[in-house]
């Protein structure tokens, strides 16, 4: 075995494969090692502090270093560090969290099912949908539609739902029976002279045409994020969901609202489903559910979904699906305390209060020569960048701006040439301005070097 230097950076390069990373480039440049966090800030192992403008991965709602969550984990760890929910077993935290989530849901839901990530939640939703179709004597009703630029995870089935090329390339994805309809991004997909309302109608027509071409009796479900997150923070155009939902009802197609990023206050309501008046049959939840202090996710299903699944499990003798850590007691306890904090501190109201400042500063960046679009809602947004000198190398401009941000003490995320902003919900108005001061300075610095 080769001698490895004792630094964390060298050991990381020697032993760890990273997500969403060029592995060979990582061998050359090494990692940024984050040591600790407090509030909206994180600190690296050299002592440099950053505004975490992505809340980790869209997820640390209550900020870093929240002692109540640490204490909730410690209490539950001491009382019951682990138990499962297989074969008629349960425990207090999973029961309480299931009850809490079903009662919180903005539309009638029947049951909660716990998983460990947004990817697993969406993957399980697909299995439930297929199971239900078989239970109803409709074995051909298995195809599922999602959208170009949509993001639903990285497990085999959920990565197939994801409508991003780099999540499919070299993985032999998507799998069969996963279809994609139009991206709802108005600026890039509109036709000349087409209004947002007209564009939304065309998206709905293209969805209906796909359903008819495939055969309505073969389409089981449609997956959609209220606001597309990792696909570039794409907001639905005016009238979009009002056009899409009736088509799903017309052809008896289940609607899955992927609330993994939008849920628990991000859009200015507890759920994106409320912001856009959606009526989903299934909601998938994660990230801000526990502020990602521990891995946990959930599906909420309505009676239309649960009833046939329950009947089929009775016919077969079991619902043959589950994860070792489904409803993990420590993760569930932390999620319950996290939801208490969100409610007690009225963080959803706080998002509504500071959103005007967030959106004003975000939209002001659209005046910059490098910015071709600013878009956002609540406390999530993005600026898309472009410049003639790098038009043939997508992602280079985003990489340059991202590097400038890091040097100046700001962690964003470059989604190609789109810079995303999704800070902890606790961010103050002053901190919003601090964040965008750095964001503007970073874009200015890159612009001067082009």
Automatic annotation (TrEMBL):
Pfam family for this entry, one: Aminotran_3
Keywords: Aminotransferase, Pyridoxal phosphate, Transferase
InterPro entries in UniProt: Aminotrans_3 (IPR005814), Aminotrans_3_PPA_site (IPR049704), PyrdxlP-dep_Trfase (IPR015424), PyrdxlP-dep_Trfase_major (IPR015421), PyrdxlP-dep_Trfase_small (IPR015422)
Organism: Roseibium limicola
Biological process annotations from GO: biotin biosynthetic process; gamma-aminobutyric acid metabolic process
Family: Belongs to the class-III pyridoxal-phosphate-dependent aminotransferase family.
Entries under NCBIfam families matching the protein: PRK06105.1 (NF004767)
SUPFAM superfamilies: PLP-dependent transferases
Keyword Transmembrane helix on entry: no
Gene3D superfamilies cross-referenced by the UniProt entry: Aspartate Aminotransferase, domain 1, Type I PLP-dependent aspartate aminotransferase-like (Major domain)
Protein name: Aspartate aminotransferase family protein
Listed GO MF terms: adenosylmethionine-8-amino-7-oxononanoate transaminase activity; pyridoxal phosphate binding
Names of required cofactors: pyridoxal 5'-phosphate
């Amino acid at each position: 075995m080769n001698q490895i230097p004792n630094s964390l950076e060298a050991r990381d390069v020697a032993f760890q494969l990273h997500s969403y990373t060029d592995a060979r480039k990582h061998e050359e440049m090494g990692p940024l090692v984050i040591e600790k966090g407090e509030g909206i800030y994180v600190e690296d192992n050299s002592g440099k502090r950053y505004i975490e403008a992505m809340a980790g991965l869209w997820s640390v709602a209550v900020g870093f270093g929240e002692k109540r969550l640490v204490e909730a984990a410690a209490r539950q760890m001491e009382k019951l560090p682990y138990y499962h929910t297989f074969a008629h077993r349960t425990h207090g935290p999973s029961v309480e969290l299931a009850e809490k989530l079903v009662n919180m849901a903005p539309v009638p839901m029947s049951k909660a099912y716990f998983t460990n990530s947004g990817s697993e939640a969406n993957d399980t939703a697909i299995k439930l949908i297929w199971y239900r179709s078989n239970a109803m004597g409709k074995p051909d009703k298995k195809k599922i539609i999602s959208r170009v630029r949509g993001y639903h995870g990285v497990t085999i089935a959920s990565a197939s739902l994801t409508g991003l090329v780099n999540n499919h390339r070299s993985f032999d994805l998507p799998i069969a029976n996963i279809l994609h309809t139009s991206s709802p991004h108005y600026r890039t997909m509109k036709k000349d002279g087409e209004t947002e309302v007209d564009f939304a109608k065309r998206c709905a027509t293209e969805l209906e045409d796909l359903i008819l071409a495939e055969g309505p009796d073969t389409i089981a479900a449609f997956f959609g994020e209220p606001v597309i997150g990792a696909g570039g923070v794409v907001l639905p155009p005016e009238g979009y969901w009002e056009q899409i939902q009736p088509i799903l009802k017309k052809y008896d197609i289940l609607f899955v609202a992927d609330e993994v990023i939008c849920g628990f206050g991000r859009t200015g309501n507890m759920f994106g489903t409320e912001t856009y008046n959606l009526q989903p049959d299934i909601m998938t939840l994660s990230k801000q559910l526990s502020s990602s202090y521990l891995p946990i996710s959930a599906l909420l299903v309505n009676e239309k979904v649960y009833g046939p699944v329950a009947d089929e499990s009775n016919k077969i003798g079991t619902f043959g699906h589950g994860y070792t850590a489904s409803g993990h007691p420590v993760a569930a306890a932390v999620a319950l305390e996290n939801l208490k904090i969100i409610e007690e501190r009225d963080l959803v109201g706080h998002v509504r209060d500071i959103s005007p400042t967030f959106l004003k500063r975000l939209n002001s960046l659209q005046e910059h020569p490098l910015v071709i679009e600013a878009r956002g809602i609540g406390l999530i947004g993005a600026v898309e960048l472009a410049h003639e000198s790098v038009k043939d190398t997508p992602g280079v401009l985003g990489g340059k701006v991202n590097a400038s941000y890091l040097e100046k003490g700001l962690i964003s995320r470059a989604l190609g040439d789109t810079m995303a902003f999704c800070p902890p919900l606790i961010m103050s108005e002053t901190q919003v301005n601090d964040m965008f001061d750095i964001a503007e300075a970073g874009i200015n610095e890159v612009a001067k070097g082009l």
